[in-house]
From TrEMBL:
InterPro entries: ATPase_NBD, Hydant_A_N, Hydantoinase_A, Oxoprolinase-like. One of its GO terms (cellular component) is cytosol. One of its GO terms (molecular function) is 5-oxoprolinase (ATP-hydrolyzing) activity. This is Hydantoinase/oxoprolinase. It comes from Spirosoma sordidisoli. It comes from the Bacteria. GO terms for biological process: glutathione metabolic process. Pfam families: Hydant_A_N, Hydantoinase_A. Residues 6-175 form the Hydantoinase/oxoprolinase N-terminal domain. SUPFAM superfamilies: Actin-like ATPase domain. Residues 194-501 form the Hydantoinase A/oxoprolinase domain.
Length: 714
């Protein structure tokens, strides 16, 4: 039988990384790096195809055996950062009493994307009754003469009645201009923010359509029949047709790819993912197997673009060390890459015999206290956290950042002498300053997202991960580890990513029928871009404070047979749970199971109120049959039932665990285990909503199928 593969491509500013993953086993079977071809006639597409051709040839894999291919791109983000955008013409629409406000809300002024780089706009407003083909044609021609390349149609309440926005967009396209609209980018009320989001979407439309089309054509010419998918900012992928409609969704997809790798390759359920490069580190939270998201801001303005909540720090494996008057001033923000220097630890030790410490400015605007090591032949090399970690023996032998320990020691000696310390003391001081910056951000995230320190682990990705993540874990007394193939975790994330889309609706006191309707809409959205119905799962969240219902659907474009060879024994799964619970295996009990999941737990005793009372609580870990922890709770109840009895059992459990307070009642967090699925019902606000969604998720399953309910108070 022929081997089927998945291909992931990460297009960077300098290099394009490609990984090939075995479709059945999800193992990486090839990885390579080629220069990014910015200046080729085909653009970056040429580098992508050259890399794919090389990888498939080396593996003797036919193009038709590629079942999935996707790439992430920084083009949308770079276009906005560099101001390389199209001028946008806005046609605002409104009728009746709301027309005056709609005229103001659709008039989006020029947006400063970077110093002296602007997204330019033009605006007209039309009463709905005056909207005719002749009117639109005249306005489009006027806009064209003013240099407009893209038309945005935006109407008050266009999310409910989109006919006028569609009419304007179609007329603009017939006239030869690109077009987008408010309802294309968001289904939320809020005309000003929706219009602004559409304007940003329109501004990057020409560049993104050109790149996506060129790449898609190259993939087809290579004989690959699988549809090309593009990485989204929320960690999923979208089709080329969707990029033509909503290119804004590809913004910030670089960090999103790393998160996708942590979720799909490392199977992280609760943790903080830290992707460390040479210049910066991106930090994100994963909770209950889901990345945390927020609305993006562009030019300081809020949009309706839902992106991963990524915190970026100017500290990384290549950050340079700053020294003045015999004191270590700081580490960063500039990196060796910016200064054009190689890392000292990747050289031979002999280079640094009789070397001396020098100071320099990485750029003209920088202070002159950045250090470098000058060798006897006049060459300069950077001292970095990677060099420090190598000197301290922290970096594993198999890590990408592994260098020469003796070279690091000799290179650190001139700096250590200047500080009056030993080489090891100096290296530890460098890492302490570097990693405390990371630790401060991690503490903020733990507090902000109410993370349980007993369940949090740090997972490092990127080429520089070994330099910072393991030492940060030591500082914070948190478990820390490196992702497998950490240096290409982002590219692996692209190869393993799922089709994903989110539908949001503003609904006051939504009924169960309302919620199911939003769920169906999200399901249809991912089916439209290629997800197979039998692979689709939907996560529902109801925010009563904002009158918001959000449905996030995800699925795959192909079926995959389960790899039974990877299944572990119950005892090995128990051992995995014990490691996560940090107890001996003998203390862990098997509390329940489904055909694809085990539920393990251990009872713990706590002493609140200064030890005056004793309180017993059940800590729970759910593993799949391969031993991967899929869900964890510090305190939870476990209830065994079946399909026939699940509604009554849910009713009883929720009634018993619901809290009442000044802000109303708060339902417990609820997860249903069915087969190999973990169905999250925690985002709902009313019992009736939970029961209706549970019924939908469990329909067509046999009545005697075992179900496990995991419940915990919020």
């Amino acid at each position: 039988m022929k081997r089927q593969v998945r291909v992931g491509i990460d297009v960077g500013g300098t290099f394009t990384d490609v990984v090939v993953v075995d479709h059945a086993t999800r193992e990486v079977i090839s990885q390579l790096k080629v220069p990014t071809t910015h200046h080729a006639t085909e653009g970056v597409a040429l580098g992508i195809i050259n890399a794919i051709a090389r990888a498939l040839a080396e593996l003797a894999v036919d193009p038709e055996d590629v079942v999935f291919i996707a790439h992430s791109t920084t083009q949308a983000t770079n276009a906005l950062l560099e101001g390389d955008v199209a001028k946008v013409g806005i046609i605002g629409i409104g009728s009746g009493w709301e027309a005056f406000k709609a005229k103001s809300d659709t008039n989006v002024p020029a947006i400063e994307l970077a110093p002296s780089r602007w997204l330019q706009t033009e605006h007209v407003f039309c009463q709905g009754r005056e909207l005719t083909g002749d009117y639109v044609d005249r306005q489009v021609e006027t806009f064209r003469q003013k240099g407009v390349e893209v038309i945005v149609a935006s109407e008050a309440f266009g999310v409910d009645q989109d006919e006028n926005e569609i009419f304007v967009s179609e007329r603009a396209r017939k006239a030869g201009l690109l077009a987008t609209s408010g309802h294309d980018v968001s289904t939320l009320y809020g005309l000003r923010t929706r219009t602004r989001t559409a304007v940003i979407n329109g501004a990057i439309l020409p560049k993104m359509i050109h790149t996506a089309t060129m790449t898609d054509e190259c993939v087809k010419k290579a004989g690959i029949t699988a549809p090309l998918m593009i990485m989204r900012s929320d960690g999923g992928v979208m089709s080329v047709d969707e990029v033509h409609r909503r290119p804004i969704m590809t913004m910030l997809s670089g960090p999103a790819a790393g998160i996708a790798g942590a979720l799909m390759h490392e199977r992280v359920s609760d943790g903080i993912f830290i992707e460390v490069g040479g210049t910066s580190a991106d930090i994100s939270v994963i909770r209950d197997g889901q990345p945390q998201t927020k609305n993006a801001r562009v030019g300081g303005h809020r949009t309706y673009l839902n992106t991963l909540d990524v915190r970026t720090l100017a500290i990384a494996g290549g950050s340079m060390i700053r020294e003045s008057d015999g004191k270590l001033v700081d580490v960063g923000t500039r990196s060796a890459h910016i200064a054009g220097l190689s890392y000292a630890c990747f050289q031979t030790p002999e280079r640094f015999i009789d070397a001396r410490l020098v100071h320099l400015r990485p750029t003209e605007k920088d202070a002159d206290d950045y250090t470098a090591i000058e060798t006897t032949d006049g060459q300069h090399f950077a001292l970095t956290p990677t060099c420090a970690a190598n000197l301290l023996g922290i970096i594993p032998d198999t890590a990408f950042a592994k260098g020469n320990t003796e070279a690091a020691r000799l290179a650190f000696k001139p700096l250590a002498d200047k500080l009056g310390k030993t080489e090891l003391e100096t290296a530890r001081l460098v890492l302490d300053i570097s990693c405390r910056k990371v630790a401060r951000q991690l503490e903020e995230l733990i507090t902000e997202y109410h993370l349980d320190r007993n369940t949090v682990e740090l997972i490092g990705g990127g080429g520089g991960a070994a330099s910072l993540v393991l030492f940060t874990g030591e500082l914070m007394n948190l478990p820390a580890r490196l992702a497998r193939k950490a240096e290409v975790i982002s590219t692996i994330g692209v190869a393993l990513a799922m089709v994903r889309d989110t539908v949001e609706r503003n609904l006051v006191d939504p009924t169960p029928e309302d919620i199911l309707a939003v769920r169906r809409e999200a399901t249809e959205a991912v089916m439209k871009v290629g997800a197979l119905p039998e692979t689709i799962e939907v996560q529902i969240e109801v925010d009563t404070r904002r009158n918001l219902v959000r449905a996030t659907a995800f699925g795959t474009t192909e079926l995959r047979k389960e790899d039974n060879a990877k299944a572990s024994t119950p005892d090995l799964c128990r051992a995995s749970a014990a490691r996560s619970l940090q107890v001996d295996e003998g203390e862990v009990r098997l509390l329940g199971q489904t055909s694809g999941l085990y539920v393990f737990g251990v009872e713990r005793e706590s002493s609140p109120f200064f030890g005056l009372f004793k309180k017993r609580q059940l800590a729970v870990r759910i593993t799949d049959k391969t031993g991967v922890v899929r869900l964890q709770r510090t305190q939870a109840g476990v209830y065994l039932t079946d399909i026939r009895q699940v509604a009554a059992e849910l009713d009883q459990v929720i009634t018993n665990l619901t809290d009442f307070g000044d802000a109303g009642r708060s339902l417990p967090d609820i997860h249903l285990l069915a087969g190999s699925r973990i169905i999250n019902l925690s985002g709902l606000a009313e019992l009736e909503q939970v029961l209706a969604l549970a019924q939908t998720e469990l329909e067509n399953r046999p009545g005697d199928e075992p179900i496990v309910i995991i419940a915990s108070r919020k």
